[in-house]
Amino acid sequence: MLVLGIDPGIANTGWGIVDFAGQRFQPVCYGVINTDPDDRLDHRIAVIAESVSQIAQKYEVKQISMEDIFFAKNEVSAIGVAKVIGGICYAAYKLEVPVTMFTPMQIKIAITGYGKAEKKQVQEMCRILLKLDKIPRPDHAADALAAAVCFCNTSSTTGKLGFLR
């Protein structure tokens, strides 16, 4: 199953696709969607949502896994990210691709086993799990791959326990 991981952001939205089959992960591709800070907010959100839609269609993903806002130090940026999440969710809805949201702590636990792991630890474990030569860059792409792996780990466990839809 192809899973599209998303690290949402108004300036930079990371994305990464992982092929998940039989307890194994394989990276397919990853990148970042950048928006122009001089553009209107509605245009930036539309660019991100349309780009995610195009990626999902191109690779025929079956699931989107996205980092959710859990706690924000900066309310202004959190509101922007929330709007991006809404745009992506709507694009996924139109494609009939389910979206699963995970808090940063849930992603850290799924990748490292420790909910307060540092960003570098998460990225290094993601590199190891995906058998990559180096940590994916930029950071937003690595975070998106981690979100995809989180879904795979979580769905594998819940599927075995009979909780998966």
The total strand number stands at: 5
Q: Name the structural class.
A: alpha/beta
Largest sheet: 5 strands, mixed
Q: Can you give the helix content as a percent range?
A: 40-55%
CATH topology: Nucleotidyltransferase, domain 5
Question: Into how many domains do the coordinates divide?
Answer: 1
Look at the structure and give the mean pLDDT: 90
Rg (C-alpha, Å): 15 Å
Terminal Cα span = 15 Å
Task: Give, in spatial order, the strands making up the sheet with the most strands.
Answer: 3-2-1-4-5
- Strand portion, in percent? 15-25%
Instruction: Supply the number of helical segments.
Output: 5
Poorly predicted runs of 5 or more residues: 159-165
What spatial form do the alpha-carbon principal axes imply? globular
Write down the CATH class: Alpha Beta
Characteristics:
alpha/beta; Nucleotidyltransferase, domain 5; 5 helices; 5 strands; 50% helix; disordered C terminus
Q: Could you describe the 3D structure shown?
A:
The chain is of the alpha/beta class and 165 residues long. The chain has one domain (2-161): Nucleotidyltransferase, domain 5 (2-Layer Sandwich). Helix content is 50%, strand content 22%. It has 5 helices and 5 strands; from the N terminus they run βββαβαβααα. It has helices at 41-59, 75-95, 104-112, 119-129, 139-161, and strands at 2-7, 12-21, 24-34, 63-67, 99-102. The protein has a 5-stranded mixed sheet with strand order 3-2-1-4-5. Helix 1 packs across helix 2 (75-95) and helix 3 crosses helix 5 (139-161). It is globular and about 40 Å long.
